Amino acid sequence: MSALDAVGMGFDAGAGSDAGSGIDAGSGLDARAIDLPHEALPAATVVSGAPTAALLPLATVGDTEVGIWEMTPGTASDTEADEVFVVLSGHAVIEFVSPPLPPLEVGPGSLVRLAEGMQTVWTVTETLRKVYVA
Asked: What is the model's pLDDT at position 21?
């Protein structure tokens, strides 16, 4: 799903969604304008600050989930799911603890691939919103 994903955030797959929150075939929406209900991250994942996050699954295509994820400024650790995402707004640096890789700065337009089990630390400096495919 996403960094600081539904499991790590205490969300279930449908958290924050209702019958009208998905996207139907043949319809569209502005992913930057959707209001997302935030929750505090689990204390064990917060490295600094008081970041909150929100998750909104939009559609399932085959076995793949597509949704929107957002995190407010702060630093938090995560164990990644297998996903690809595109940043819509905001800025962050993703540090790769395991496997050790160079830090990755992301902002609007960044396209990123994460693999299941990667250990990361996200430092969000401007509320980060992304569309994920997982």
From this structure: 57
